[in-house]
Structure formats: C-alpha cells, structure tokens
C-alpha cells in the first residue's frame, strides 16, 4: 500500500488497517474514502486459495470480475487474514494525462533513477548523452533522449522516445515525445504529450504552457496550425479553425474542423 493525496484517493482501491497492518476494510474507488492508503495492485496469494476464490467469482453472475470490487471484499467477509505491506519507495499511478506527464518529468527531476544497479531497466538503453544524432544548431538541456533519436532543434526539459525526430529550429519544452513521433522544422511545442507515430508539421505550434495538450498516436498536426488548451476556437495563419480545449481523456485528439 502507498499513501496518496486525499484529493486523489477516490481513484484507487482504498484500505484501512489496524496497528499490525491487517486490512480491516477495503473499497474500490470509493466516493468518500475512509483513508488515503491506496492499493498498488500487487497481490500475493497461495495458489490453492486464489483458485478457490476465482472459481467462486466465476460462478457469481453479479460479479464485476475485479480483485478490488469482488475478490478482496469476499475474503474480508469470510474472515480471512489479509495484510498490507507499506511501500516507501517511488510509485506513481499513470492513469490520467497529468500523472503520465508528471511521471516522465520525475525522470528529469531526480525523483526516480532508472538504469542503476539498484533499479535496472530491462528494456532498450536510455541515455541523455549517446545513441542519438544531433545536427548543427541542436541544443539539449535537462532532457532524456532515447536511442535512435535525430535531434536538430532545441530540446528543453523533455523526454524524447526511441526513433523520435526533431526538425531544425524547432523548440520543444516540458514535453513527452512518444516513440517514432516526427516534429518538423520551426515547430513550437510547450507542455504536451505527442503520441506514438504522430506528425507535427513545419511551423506548427502545440501548447501554450498552461494545461497539457495531447496529440493522439498516429495523428498529424498540419503546418502553421496553432493548438492550445486555453481557447475553444483558434484561427491559424490561413484562417482554418482548429478545435481545441482542455483534454480530460488520454490520447484525446485535437482535430482540424474543415
């Protein structure tokens, strides 16, 4: 279990424990949480007990087939002894746009260190120094650049994933660029999440530094378009109307209204 902010507690499975760490109450995403001790979604069972519980759950037509909503409450109702381990290390849920962006920024701010002997990264190597190519005029400050990135512009406090391309004279700030996204020349991106394989064309502007803007995977932001979360409708330099607004769903799409 992990203490979370009270204002976020209703997003998690929430438990109450006694002085010995025994769970005495558990509610999945309660509207009025009794505590801020959140389940991290990691459970340890004896196989025989887990099998029994899953068979009972499968036979229950009213079950939602969920550990937090069905299995754990059943165990408590049967009087089983359940204990919580209080985790003191780094952990963050990434179920919202803000938390996904913040988790990436944690890599830059020193809140978590990956690729160390204590916390090895069992994936492709990450590096802010090697494995990427930079052209004339490229400037990289306080950023994490994955291997296979081609950087020609200015990158500041951002995470650029494998295969990303940053065009000449573009400025990327406080942004997460997902794998194989392509950003053209003279683009300006501020406080955004650029989805995997998305394309930002030349001279496009995404974000104004306020709320996080999300460009969906595989989508294209056309040249010269200006997108920001602070306005309902914005005209670009060619008088095209772009639909914008505060985004509240992951991978939400800002579309051009023809």
UniProtKB/TrEMBL annotation:
Residues 130-208 form the Glucose-1-phosphate adenylyltransferase/Bifunctional protein GlmU-like C-terminal hexapeptide domain. GO terms for molecular function: ATP binding; glucose-1-phosphate adenylyltransferase activity. GO terms for biological process: glycogen biosynthetic process. Residues 4-109 form the Nucleotidyl transferase domain. The keyword Nucleotide-binding applies. InterPro entries: ADP-Glc_PPase, ADP_Glu_pyroP_CS, GlmU/GlgC-like_hexapep, NTP_transferase_dom, Nucleotide-diphossugar_trans. It comes from the Bacteria. Keywords: ATP-binding, Carbohydrate metabolism, Glycogen biosynthesis, Glycogen metabolism, Nucleotide-binding, Nucleotidyltransferase, Transferase. Coiled coil: none annotated. Transmembrane segments: none annotated. PANTHER family: GLUCOSE-1-PHOSPHATE ADENYLYLTRANSFERASE, GLUCOSE-1-PHOSPHATE ADENYLYLTRANSFERASE-RELATED. Belongs to the bacterial/plant glucose-1-phosphate adenylyltransferase family. This is Sugar phosphate nucleotidyltransferase.
């Amino acid at each position: 279990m992990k203490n979370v902010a009270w204002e976020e507690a209703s997003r998690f499975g929430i438990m109450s424990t006694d002085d010995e760490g025994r769970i005495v109450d558990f509610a999945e995403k309660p509207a009025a949480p009794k505590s801020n001790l959140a389940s991290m979604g990691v459970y340890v069972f004896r196989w025989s007990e887990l099998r029994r519980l899953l068979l009972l759950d499968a036979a229950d037509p009213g079950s939602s087939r969920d550990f937090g909503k069905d299995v754990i409450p059943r165990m408590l109702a049967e009087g089983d002894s359940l204990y919580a381990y209080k985790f003191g290390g780094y952990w963050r849920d990434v179920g919202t746009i803000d938390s996904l962006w913040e988790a990436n920024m944690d890599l830059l701010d020193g809140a978590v260190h990956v690729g160390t002997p204590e916390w090895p990264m069992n994936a492709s190597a990450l590096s802010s120094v090697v494995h990427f190519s930079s052209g004339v005029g490229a400037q990289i400050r306080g950023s994490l650049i994955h291997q296979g990135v081609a950087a020609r512009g200015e990158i500041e406090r951002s995470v650029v994933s494998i295969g990303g391309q940053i065009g000449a004279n573009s400025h990327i700030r406080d942004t997460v660029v997902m794998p194989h996204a392509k950003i053209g020349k003279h683009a300006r991106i501020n406080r955004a999440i650029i989805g995997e394989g998305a394309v930002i064309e030349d001279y496009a502007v995404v974000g104004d530094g306020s709320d996080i803007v999300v460009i969906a995977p595989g989508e294209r932001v056309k040249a010269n378009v200006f997108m920001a979360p602070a306005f309902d409708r914005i005209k670009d330099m060619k008088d095209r109307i772009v639909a914008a607004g505060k985004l509240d769903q992951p991978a939400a799409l800002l579309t051009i209204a023809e």
